[in-house]
Amino acid sequence: MISETNSKVVELHSRKVFEDIMTFIGKFESKHTQRNYERSIRNFYLWLDPVHKDIEYLNEDDLKVRNADILRYQKYLKDHEADYTNITINSHIAPIQSLYEYLEINEYPINSKIVKISMLSDDSEITGPLYLDEAEEMAKLSLQDRKLGQEKYCLIRSAYTTSFRKSSLLSLEWTDIKKNPLADNYLVTTIGKGNKRHTVPISTDLYSELLKIKEQPYYRKFNDNKIFHLSPNTIQILMNNLKKKMGILPERNVKFHSLRNVAASFGTIEEAKKHLNHSNISTTERYRKHTAEDYSNSISLRIEDKIDDSILEHLSKEELVQIIIQQNHGVLSQIKRDAQDMLNNKEGMVVIM
């Protein structure tokens, strides 16, 4: 508890700095921008001194940082288990740089050039695509690990099924999984990017596989209720080994985050947006793009390609099945669902008759 004397000292030394910081933040019209700037500035000073550096209590001496401090903070964000993209890291650094320019203009004894560092390259398109059959193969290969195989298998399968980020998966606890009272599946809930609550159903089969992790001898030493206990370094080594075994070329730039993108090609873009927990549909559209685009199937060519519907009647059943199987996973999944609905309708008609 702060005494009356200490309170006056805090007021004398800190209030001016805090009020000027809030004035700087308040000059942005967007409430979203204000929140992001305040969070970035708070996080930076708490990183510098977790105990004493709440911005409410900053004084002018606290503003004197070195260029090396900013570089270390950038590296800290790059190495963070949340697996931040370069774009996200840049968005955390930029508010600090803008603040120091503002404070220098307002005659604080600082040099804003001190916090100037090179921003990281735009990596929004860097994570390479991964396809369902490849993701499934990765999961199967992971089982070959004698000690951690079951946990690695479940991590990869959970990653491409739920599309949760690595940090969210590693934070999952057993109590985050609930039986769905309305269907034969389970609901997994996590707090994702932007502190948004996100719930995704998983199959009873996947849940059964997750429970097998508890049966592993090494698991008995854990009592923290966490599902996964793999370190980011272990996951990186796992991905490197899997890519080598599967012959995935480095140029494809496949990363663990690529598993999250597998589901982007399924369903409608609105379904993918909801599943990936995106705020903006333009982000989902970017995820649905693969780096190696097939221009032979472009709209500009198909619109000129007049083919009569009767052509399908000239194919055998085996040829039609072959064409269907060759479709991308999203189209094939929809065809299977339509076929299942048609069969269900047939069965219903037989019962009625």
TrEMBL record:
User: Per UniProt, what is one GO molecular function of this protein?
Assistant: DNA binding
Q: Which UniProt keywords apply?
A: DNA recombination, DNA-binding
Give the source's domain of life in one word: Bacteria
Report whether Protein biosynthesis shows up as a keyword of the record. no
Where does the secretion signal sit in this chain?
none
Q: Which residues form the Core-binding (CB) domain?
A: 19-104
Q: Which InterPro entries match?
A: CB, DNA_brk_join_enz, Integrase-like_cat_sf, Integrase_catalytic, Integrase_recombinase_N, Tyrosine_recombinase_XerCD
User: What's a Pfam family this protein contains?
Assistant: Phage_integrase
Q: Which Gene3D superfamilies match?
A: 1.10.150.130, Intergrase catalytic core
Choose any GO biological process term that the UniProt entry carries and state it: DNA recombination
- Domain Tyr recombinase, which positions? 125-300
In the record, the note on similarity to other proteins reads: Belongs to the 'phage' integrase family.
Name used for this protein in its record: Integrase
The major lineage groups are: Bacteria, Bacillati, Bacillota, Bacilli, Bacillales
